[in-house]
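Teaching assistant's notes for section 4

Start the section by putting this record on the projector. Ask students to predict, before seeing the second block, whether Signal peptidase I will look compact or extended. Collect guesses on the board.
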Amino acid sequence: MANRKSEWFDWVKALLIAFALAFIVRMFLFAPIVVDGPSMLPTLHDRDQMIVNKFSYRISEPKRFDIVVFHASAQKDFIKRVIGLPGEHIAVEDNALYVDGNEVEQSFFNEQNKNINSNQTLTSDFYLEYLPGGYKEIPEGQVLVLGDNRSNSTDSRILGLISMDQIVGKTNLVYWPLDRMQLLGE
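Reveal the predicted structure now:
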């Protein structure tokens, strides 16, 4: 009888440890997220399921073109691409991205660009100072984010700059559906 109680206690203890570890991993390290909407097409599709790395920005800073998840409101998280970093001036003219006056290639647009004619606008022209906040350069602790589907994205052009405190983490692993499983780079 004592062996049976000890075995039962061991199982309960193992389950509690497993739940505690799962909670810690989910709260502080990794979490699943589902893409909601077309704002990151063609890179991410509606209903793609991804893993968010919550600790990457605790040890490093965001890099240009990282795909991040951030709290857009208390109820909603958004997935967008980091375009502008602290200390930079960002502008888009004639579909070209300019960082501090220098054109920067957006290689993730290569596939999208080959299917359009040269007169079609992917990104309407904008300048950092005309976005909410009216900044001349991105302040420390903030980033400018855009969706890859620039004509159908609620991003920094509407929301303004995103504080690092709003960022949940970086994401680059699509794990579902299986035929779209991929590790995304720049």
